[in-house]
Amino acid sequence: MRALLQRVTSGSVSVDGKVIGETGAGLVILACAMQGDTEENVAAIAKKIVNLRIFKDDDARMNRSLLDTGGGALIISQFTLAADTSRGNRPGFSAAAAPDEGEKLYDLLCETIAGYGVNVGKGQFGGDMQVSLVNDGPVTIWVEK
Q: Which fold has domain 2-133?
């Protein structure tokens, strides 16, 4: 599984002009299930995400985790993280999990992170979404498990 984490002061996702998910301070997580991913991949990346020390401590050093801060997470499925741009100018997405499996693993990621006590907002799997966020730092980190 691949995820792009953005530390934010706020974030929201809309479909057809209606906000369907949001978070305050915390993370906007763009997530992609890859072919061959399992529930173990989801558990591992969820654990990494909630424990990654990318939030400021009292000395303004990145030394606190999402769990330490009590921040929220907005998790959005994004199969384009599987893009292969090695040939030509049109990306290929064949490394992404099939849609039914991708949705199952996406939902499991949301449930797993929520299981750590994190308030989770969600996007719409496969939906045409508009994402708004205020990146804090900016801090943007790639995670893969």
A: D-tyrosyl-trna(Tyr) Deacylase; Chain: A; (3.50.80)
